[in-house]
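Incident log, support desk, overnight shift.

02:14 A customer reports that sequence design results differ from what the structure should imply. Their input is reproduced verbatim below. On-call engineer (initials T.W.) acknowledged and began investigating.
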């Protein structure tokens, strides 16, 4: 009777071994606690309610096998709405010869015994997993070119009529979680949507008949994986991964990424662990790139190619200038009249946009002297890179002079004298001979060194702007959407949609914001920002300025100049006399 009920008893052979020893030839009958425990276990097993379910040939199968010194056993599991449930047990005791097998041979015998006794359930199954607790069996079973021992090779050859993959027993729980849908409601949702999906409904007949139209563009993405596709409870799967209907794929990607914003690669791994569909990589990449929270929090490595300033046709045409003090303090320190009397008044004087160049006093001085004041792109010191680079040398000289307790002004002039009398590596001539007529660095060298690339923004595009003076905890970009209004060279004008604030920055400060449609609503959680829509470019007011990599002044603004004051008021310096003014009169 126990042999008949063995299919319902787990580890039957191991429990039966103490009682079986009493039935051997010439064995002394001795009833001990070991036999009594085995007898009680059998009574409990045959009197308790079984947990087995009926066999269904259309459901996915999963087999576990194990071998020991006393017996071989296995179990057949079947996929249901609540996961994998037990269908059948198999077990037998080992012979005296088998008890002397090596461990790997016993495990192989257990796999062969389990599959041979379950052939009525496994024959015809497209694919199933066979789990074992011995990892050394995996390369023997899964590699057709593996070199095997004769006994192991004979056992594996007996199993060649079955389509299975050997997996590690320790990964069974993980495998079951990956294949099994978490809840019954999720299963019903996917099954319902699959019934309404036109593409998946075309795949089902092809899966059943095995006839695939290679010219059909709808079926073409599934043809390469058609041997791995099957249907279970109105849900299409590829091996252990669900093929969701098309209208649920966007939701799956959004939930997987929006929960933690874990990045592109981790989002792919999370989704691929449970789902598969054609073109999923491109869809995930597009969704992550359009994530507004990720866009304002990540930096972009973008350096615009160098745009060379037109070389002047004559000497002393353009002079680059910078200072850190007010204009009045600079004028007291530097004799402008003497410089202009020696070299002449330049046609253009280029500077940044900070003080003192934004003062009325400097504007009056420019009109009085007769030169044109040109400003570089705001917040982009690279546009005046030669002067800014020379400032590093000046700061170094002043630091050394203070350390040696020398006069910083004298140290700077000594350094300038040595610099101007030394042949320049580009011209091979001392600068004082050329009188500031040396060429700048090669454009190709700059582009190669900084790995530049041209921006892809155009008027009407939505963009983000990099924060200035970013503090810890804030996003790298402002959480506001701007619309590009005009591009001239490396200078870009944009208008903020929220309050129509206009800004002018270098193109490297902007980051393209992908949008699906022109009127797509963009919202940011945890920010007091209303819904934002990208307007049409025809509604954008064209700016009156004419920006380039060097900001050109507006002619109309120059015509509407204020009347010159009768007497120019004298402004007090903003800094103490103890602080040395930094001044560069660019000679070369």
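02:41 Re-run completed on a clean worker. Output:
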């Amino acid at each position: 009777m126990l042999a008949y009920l063995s299919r319902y008893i787990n580890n039957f052979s191991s429990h039966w071994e103490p009682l079986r020893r009493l039935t051997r030839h010439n064995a002394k009958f001795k009833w001990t606690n070991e036999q009594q425990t085995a007898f009680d276990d059998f009574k409990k097993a045959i009197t308790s309610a079984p947990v087995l379910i009926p066999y269904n040939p259309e459901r996915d199968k999963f087999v576990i096998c194990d071998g020991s010194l006393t017996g071989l056993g296995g179990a057949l599991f079947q996929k249901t709405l609540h996961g994998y449930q037990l269908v059948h047990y198999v077990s037998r005791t080992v012979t005296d010869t088998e008890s002397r097998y090596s461990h790997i041979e016993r495990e192989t015998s257990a796999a062969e015994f389990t599959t041979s006794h379950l052939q009525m359930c496994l024959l015809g199954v497209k694919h199933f997993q066979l789990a074992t607790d011995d990892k050394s069996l995996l390369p023997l079973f899964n590699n057709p070119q593996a070199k095997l021992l004769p006994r192991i090779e004979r056992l594996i050859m007996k199993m060649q009529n079955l389509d299975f993959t050997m997996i590690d027993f320790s990964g069974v729980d993980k495998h079951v979680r990956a294949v099994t849908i978490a809840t019954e409601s999720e299963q019903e949702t996917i099954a319902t949507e699959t019934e309404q999906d036109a593409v998946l409904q075309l795949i089902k007949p092809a899966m059943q008949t095995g006839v695939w139209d290679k010219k059909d563009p709808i079926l073409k993405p599934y043809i390469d994986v058609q041997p791995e596709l099957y249907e279970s409870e109105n849900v299409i799967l590829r091996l252990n991964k669900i093929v969701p209907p098309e209208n649920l794929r966007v939701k799956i990607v959004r939930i997987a990424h929006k929960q933690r914003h874990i990045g592109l690669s981790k989002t792919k791994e999370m989704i691929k662990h449970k789902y598969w569909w054609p073109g999923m990589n491109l869809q995930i990449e597009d969704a992550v790139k359009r994530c507004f929270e990720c866009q304002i929090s990540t930096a972009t490595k973008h350096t615009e190619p160098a745009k060379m300033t037109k070389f002047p046709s004559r000497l002393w045409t353009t002079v680059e200038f910078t200072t850190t003090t007010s204009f009045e303090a600079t004028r007291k320190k530097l004799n402008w009249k003497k410089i202009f009397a020696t070299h002449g008044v330049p046609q253009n004087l280029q500077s940044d946009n900070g003080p003192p160049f934004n003062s009325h006093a400097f504007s009056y001085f420019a009109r009085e002297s007769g030169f044109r004041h040109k400003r570089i792109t705001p917040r982009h010191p690279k546009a005046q890179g030669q002067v800014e680079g020379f400032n590093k040398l000046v700061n170094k000289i002043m630091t050394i002079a203070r350390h040696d307790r020398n006069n910083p002004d004298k140290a700077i002039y000594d350094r300038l004298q040595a610099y101007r009398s030394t042949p320049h590596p580009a011209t091979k001539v001392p600068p004082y001979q050329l009188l500031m007529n040396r060429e700048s660095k090669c454009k190709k060298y700059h582009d190669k060194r900084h790995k530049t690339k041209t921006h892809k923004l155009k008027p009407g595009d939505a963009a983000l702007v990099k924060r200035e003076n970013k503090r810890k905890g804030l996003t790298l970009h402002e959480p506001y959407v701007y619309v590009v209004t005009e591009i001239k060279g490396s200078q870009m004008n944009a208008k903020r949609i929220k309050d129509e604030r206009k800004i002018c920055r270098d193109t490297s400060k902007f980051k393209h914001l992908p949008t699906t449609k022109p009127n797509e609503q963009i919202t940011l959680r945890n920010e007091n920002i209303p819904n934002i829509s990208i307007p049409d470019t025809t509604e954008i007011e064209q700016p009156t300025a004419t920006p380039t990599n060097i900001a050109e002044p507006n002619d109309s603004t120059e015509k509407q100049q204020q009347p010159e004051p009768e007497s120019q008021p004298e402004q007090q310096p903003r800094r103490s006399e103890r602080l040395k003014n930094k001044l560069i009169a660019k000679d070369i």
